[in-house]
Design a protein that fits this description.
The protein is about 30% helix and about 25% strand. It is α+β, with helices and mostly antiparallel strands. It folds into two domains: about 15-75 and about 150-330, Bira Bifunctional Protein, Domain 2 (BirA Bifunctional Protein, domain 2); about 340-460, Anticodon-binding domain (Rossmann fold, 3-Layer(aba) Sandwich), CATH 3.40.50.800. The strands form seven sheets. The protein has a seven-stranded mixed β-sheet. It has a five-stranded mixed β-sheet with strand order 20-19-21-22-23, sandwiched between helices. The longest helix has 20 residues, at about 45-65. The chain binds adenosine-5'-triphosphate.
Amino acid sequence: MSETTNEYQGKATMEKITSLAKRRGFVFQSSEIYGGQNGAWDYGPLGIELKNRIAQSWWKEMTQLHDNIVGLDAAILMHPRTWEASGHVENFTDPLVDCKKCKSRFRADQIPQQNISEKKCPDCGGELTDTRKFNLMFKTNIGPVEDSAGIIYLRPETAQGIFVNYKNVIQSNRMKIPFGIAQIGKAFRNEIVTKNFIFRTCEFEQMEMQFFVKPGTDEEWYNQWKKRRWAYYEKLGLKMDHFRWRQHGPDEMAHYAKEAWDIEYLFPMGWRELEGIHNRTDYDLVRHTEYSGKDMQYIDQESGEGTSVTRFIPYIVETSAGLTRNVLMALCDAYDEEKVTDEKKSGGSEGSGDDWRTVMRFHPSIAPVTVAVLPLMKKDGLAELAQDIRRELMEDFATDYDQAGAIGRRYRRQDEAGTPFCVTVDYESKNDNTVTLRYRDSMEQIRVKRAELAERLRKEIKEYKRAT
Ligand code: ATP
C-alpha cells in the first residue's frame, strides 16, 4: 500500500485532525497562552474520556480476560541505579545532528544517509555538525541540594517498574510462571524532534504488559502475544487494512531484544509504529540481579521431582503500546467526511441533500460520549422529560445533554464528537413514553419505548459493527 491511500485523500489529514481536536476539546496545546510547550499536550473534556476508555479497554483485554495477569502502578521516580542496570544511561540515545546555518536539529537516522555523508542540511543545504549521541532521559535533582548524589530520572518507559517489582508480585499474589504484569502510566523522553501532533511527545503514556515465561518457551509465547495483540485491534472495529507488521532488523533492535516486531498503523503522514512486541530475554532481570545484588531467580516448585526445586531467571515477552499514540490512531481511524444524501436524511431533519458532515466513527466502547439526549424543543415540558431520561441513563452510560439550536445542527455536533447514539424527545414522547433513537453511522432513526432504551443501547454497543 502506498504511503497515503485514497482513503486519506481529502479526508483525515493531520491539519484536520489537529483542528477538530482543538475545536471540540479533545486535545489542546500545553501552556498555549504562553506560546505553547513543545512536546506536551493537554487532553480536554472529550479527549480525556477517549483516552480513559482506550486505557480501560486495554486494561480489560490484558488483565480481566486472563487469570494469570495482574496490574501494577509503579512510581515515575525510581532509584537511579535502575537506569544503569537497564542500560538506559549508556544506551538510550538517539544520533543527533544540527545545521550550522539554519539551526535545525535532526535525528541522524531519520534523514537521508546521503545528507549525513555529505554533511548537508536537508532543509537549507547548510553544513551539518558531526553526529553525536544524545541521551533521551530527562534528568533532574531530588532533595534540596543540586549535586550529583541527588540525580534522578523521569522514567523513559514503564517496564522497569514492573521488573523491579516482579518478586513482590509473585510473593504477594502467589503468581506462577507463566504470568504477566500490566501497567499504564506516564513516560518521558527528551525527543529531538517532536512533530505530528501527539504522535511523538516528550511526555506520553504507555500501556505495557510484561509476561514472564520459562526460558525455552519464550518463542512460543512471543508468537501467542503477537496474535493476541493483533486480535485486540480487530476487536475494536478499526480499519484493519491500516495495520501491518514490521520486523526490526538486527541493526535497529533495542539492546535487550532477541526479537522485535512493531504493529504499524497508516497515519495520514504514513506508516508508523503504534505498538512494539519484544522478546526481552532474561536481560533485564539478569542486570537487576547484578546491580542490586538481589536474587531475581524464580523458584519453580512444581516442575521439580519430589521435594526438589528448579530455579531460573525468567524470559520476558513484552507488549508495549503508546496510549497517547493510540488516541491519535483512534482519531485518525474514526475520522470521516460524508455527503448527506437524500436517502440518508430522515424526516427532513438532517439538512439539505448537499450537506456534508464530519463524523467520528469511534467504536461505542471507546466513544467519549455514548448517548446524547436531545429535546426537540425546550418548551412544553420536553426539556424536563429529556433531562429526566438523561438522569436515568447516566448511571450506566456516558451521556450528554443538548437543547441549544436546530435539531439537525445538534446531530452534527454529536457526529463530530463521535457520539454513536442520540435520543430525541418530542411531543409523542409525552403521550406514549417512546423516544427516537438515532444512529450516528447510518443516521437511521427508530422509535423505542423509554422503558426499553437502556437495554437496547447495551445490545447495540455489544453488537456494533462498523459499516465503512
Ligand atoms: P519510536 O521508534 O517511535 O521512537 P520506540 O521504538 O522507541 O518508538 P518503544 O520504546 O518500543 O518505542 O515504546 C513503546 C511504545 O511507546 C511505542 O510503540 C509508542 O506507541 C510509544 N512511544 C514511544 N515513544 C513515544 C513518544 N515520544 N511519544 C508518544 N508515544 C511514544
